[in-house]
Amino acid sequence: MKYRGRHRRRRRGQALRATLAGTALALTAAATLISTSQATGSGTPGGLTPLTSAAATGKLRLHENLVARDTLDTLTKDMGGNVGVDGVLSTADRSMRDEADCAAGERAALPIEPTATRAYCWESGDARTRQWQPRSVTTSGDADDDGHWGEHRVILAGWTHHDDQAAAPTRDEGLARIAFVDATDPHALTYDWVLLVAPRDGGKDFAAVPSDLGGMVWYQDKLIVTAAHGAGLLVFDMHRILKADVSSGAVGRVSGGYSADGYQYVLPAIGSYDVPGGACGGEDAHTVPCFGSLSLDRTSTPDSLVATERSMSDGAKRARVWRYSYSTAAYRTGLLADSQGYVDAVEAYETRAAGLSGALSRTPSGARKADWYVGHTPDHGTQHDTLWRQTERGAKAATCTADRSHACWGLGAESLSYWQETDELWTLTGAGADAGTRRVLYAVPLSSVDGSLG
């Protein structure tokens, strides 16, 4: 899909793709191959099971709720207008470390096979990373198929507050924020924080938005993230990034202006997608699912939002993966395709890959059905994840040369985002115990992932 204000860089993109493709060939030679039919004792999830009955797909239906335009306009005007993505990046003064400068524990979280071609660690002195976990990732490669937002290449990383050791709620409890990373120069990534909020009092005030940020997709001018506890989705408009003018621990309108817990920028929600079937979760495989992760599929027609069900890694319950189509209406950029306020899943499957940690769907050229790349997190935090490629026919995963296991993917990776322009699969580590010692943002060429599967 072609979208606003592009600055085309076809030659540069082709050169970068060629470089990565060469790296991918070298990495592929290092990986050994295994298929479902060859696996013994591997715990393979097997093939995907299609869900086609109205009763099954009806549990995935969403109801769209949009905030009144007047409310959004009031808040935008009172806070001085949209500063835009460029405004946030212009003050990005925190630097990410290249892989060579990451600590040994951080590098140990990277995938074993295939290996990452790019990896970055967060600024070691950034106090805003303590008691927080990076959960999800999306990029300007999702937002626009030329990979840029204006003049920049951008990565968004969603963080949620997490402090198991706290005896009482902390100031940051219930907050959700996003790191806006300027990735225009691959050798000098910088970032700044944006707090997620919701308008209140007709746009005269705002409050913090609780979200686990397990999933996040930036498509066109909208950002869709998972809501708190996976109970639906939240929607944000990238043309309504606002600047706080008071620095304090409060969130919302204060004496003298607006405060955002010390953060400089806020992104107010413009709507939500709720599941009308009641509370999500439960042991019954046919209950309303809690959202786990999100990703974008540009190979479907139209482009679609891919979702996974939040599931326990040690559970026997099958997990679901499914998709919603994006709207093709010019006045509904970045929103899901609706019918009288409701959004229906257009494709859904069950998988035995419990403990899902991200999923990506892509239809190969000439194929009728999509391949699903599904991450699996083990039920203990000391083993690397497994990345399966599943179809209805079966599942494949790379095999680690050292121990012949499938636990070759990143340690505690929780999200997948495909950058079409560069053929890069982006994700980040940092979930689970001792997360603070192994938070890494990295990319692996998808061609390298496929090459490792045979």
pLDDT < 50 stretches: 1-41, 164-169
Radius of gyration: 21 Å
User: What level of helicity do the residues show?
Assistant: 10-25%
Mean pLDDT: 86
State the separation between the terminal residues, measured CA to CA. Answer: 31 Å
Strand content: 25-35%
Rough shape? globular
| SS content category | mainly beta
Largest sheet, strands/sense/barrel: 13 strands, mixed
Number of H- or I-type helical stretches = 7
Overall number of strands: 29
Overview of the molecule:
- The protein has 454 residues and is mostly beta strands.
- It is 12% helix and 33% strand.
- It contains 7 helices and 29 strands.
- It has helices at residues 10-28, 54-58, 69-78, 84-90, 104-107, 140-143, 446-451; strands spanning 49-50, 62-66, 94-95, 97-98, 118-121, 132-139, 154-161, 176-182, 190-200, 205-208, 216-219, 222-226, 233-237, 242-243, 251-254, 257-260, 265-274, 291-297, 304-309, 319-325, 342-343, 347-351, 356-362, 371-376, 386-390, 395-397, 417-419, 424-428, 440-445.
- Strands 2, 3, 6, 7, 8, 9, 10, 11, 12, 13, 14, 17 and 21 form a 13-stranded mixed sheet that branches.
- Strand 11 and strand 12 (222-226) form a beta hairpin.
- The longest helix has 19 residues, at 10-28.
- It is globular and about 60 Å long.
Helix-strand blueprint:
Layout (H helix, E strand, L loop, with lengths): L9 H19 L20 E2 L3 H5 L3 E5 L2 H10 L5 H7 L3 E2 L1 E2 L5 H4 L10 E4 L10 E8 H4 L10 E8 L14 E7 L7 E11 L4 E4 L7 E4 L2 E5 L6 E5 L4 E2 L7 E4 L2 E4 L4 E10 L16 E7 L6 E6 L9 E7 L16 E2 L3 E5 L4 E7 L8 E6 L9 E5 L4 E3 L19 E3 L4 E5 L11 E6 H6 L3
Parallel strand pairs: 9-17
Antiparallel strand pairs: 1-22, 2-17, 2-21, 3-9, 4-5, 5-29, 6-7, 7-8, 8-9, 9-10, 11-12, 12-13, 13-17, 14-17, 15-16, 18-19, 19-20, 20-22, 23-24, 24-25, 25-26, 27-28, 28-29
